[in-house]
Queue: 2 jobs
Job 1
Amino acid sequence: MKYQLLPKLRWGLVILFLVSSLVFANLAYSNNSEFNRLEQILTGYGFIVKQEIPPKINNSGLRPYGLMNSKTKTIWINPVVFELGNARSVLIHEAVHAAQTCAGKGQISLVNLDLEPPQFTRPYFMRYHSYRREIEAQAYTVQVQPDSLAIVIELLEQNCS
Ligand SMILES: [Zn+2]
């Protein structure tokens, strides 16, 4: 009897662990007030923020952490970033692209930004080419600033209002 109960107990603990992780993941998610604030601002400017796995962008099958479609003004935030703890910076990156979309009236264009890309961000945007490289350089530059949220909110105000 003892030996039959033990595996059941173990499964019970596993299930309890899974349920409590979900609860804690949810708590961490709802406590992410800066994420929610930026999401609300983006929604106010007519962007749609989807917490879904982004569609495939090429044949690599890789799904990015975040993606923005400037034609449909849709931003995808891959739910995995909530587990990784970088949801805020991924949304800030995509919000820069949103401001760039407003700047170009639907065509993604550079925004006015008086910041140089920090050296350590170079590998992230150097893999892109020509104009796209400059577009990504702006997004990575803002994303890594200590006051990134304030900067991106200002960029959205300047370009989307
Ligand atoms: Zn980007």
Note: The CA atoms of residues 125 and 132 lie 9 Å apart.
Job 2
Amino acid sequence: MSALSEKDKAFVWHPFTQARTALTPIPVVKAEGVWLYAEDGKRYLDANSSWWTVIHGHGNAYLAKQVHEQFLKLDHVIFAGVTHPKAVELSERIIDLLGGNFKKVFFSDNGSTAVEVALKMVYQYWFNLGHPKKRFLAIEGAYHGDTFGAMSVGQRGNFNQPFEHLFFEVDFVKFPNQANQHNVLAEMEKLFATGEFAGFIFEPLVQGAAGMRTYDAAWLNEALKLARKNRVLTIADEVMTGFYRTGTLFAIHQLEQEPDIICLSKGLTGGVLPLGLTVATQQIYDVFLADETVKALLHGHSFTGNALACAAACASLDLLNNPDAKHAVETISKMHAAFVKAQKNNPVFKDVRSCGTILAVELNTGTESSYFTEIRDRAYAFFLERGFLIRPLGNIVFVNPPYCISETELKSLYRVILDFAATLKN
Ligand SMILES: Cc1ncc(COP(=O)(O)O)c(C=O)c1O
């Protein structure tokens, strides 16, 4: 074990990691484009964009320059009672890009806090109106983050069991598929008719942590219509899907109906600095306007509106605006779709699916898909040995690479997945 790894073992507590059984964390000392370089010189292709964030790849010179220039002007400033040009620029651009009724941007630090803020906006909206409502609706398999509110609206299970008694009241409808779509809508209608629901939160088109599970835009349109009809506020959690992951700038751009609130993070800054945004309609914002301070959204964080993160986000939007980025997204999406077509009938896969730049294969284990399957560890080690950092979600192997990946690199990813699949045939 290297000196760096020894010290890591001595001092660091890693996320989502059982230190007793996990492999020694890879000591990464450098990164460039899609590649991560370990201390021993070995390189790894960052197939999941470092927790789905670094959409332009690592070490992007333009992002670095913009952040550096911002640092020289203004690094960080309290965001209550103060504003600054990059926060205003970012807000204006995001509102413009989202279109529709979105009018106000609230800043926080990451995906979980963007969701937390959205949940608080919804509860306080009803509170301020004098009709407090307790219940929320979410979809089975949901993941919205690891803070308490975000956990409350997430799938219950091993990840949050110790805290479950502290969660607020959430009903979960079944994940919509071809067979049950109508029943799920009927169930929603019944629940909403109680008048007790404050809001409905969902990951549009793809449930990420559940295993990159895709569902129909048409179903979501109907669900949003039902919510609107019953005066239930809707939150689109685009923390994972935003910024071209699903092929369009935002997944909600594939819908006819518009949610009331949208949460953004991950790719927002090109994945290089932490930042979360919760964007709301004017109608929601107006309910917080009053002579009494207590009607305001009394929420904030030390780093709310951090100027360096805002500069990174503006620079990332510049890069996304470049035709090269759109071309890259199209190329990846097309190559993924071709892989799906070619592998659809491969018996090793229970399912093969793609949505924009996300590709997932569900390995046939003969049992229910699960996060806690030994095949996950075997696959992870197999990929690492061959120089690919791919973190499967249980028996679901997926890739959502930085958009700067080359066609050759993408093909090498497909190859290594097929190589691993081939080991399962024996
Ligand atoms: C849809 C969704 N929402 C929220 C989060 C939480 O984001 P963060 O890890 O930045 O807190 C995630 C993280 O994976 C996510 O996929």
Note: The pocket of pyridoxal-5'-phosphate is lined by residues 110-112, 115, 143-145, 203, 208-209, 237, 239-240, 265 (CB under 6 Å).
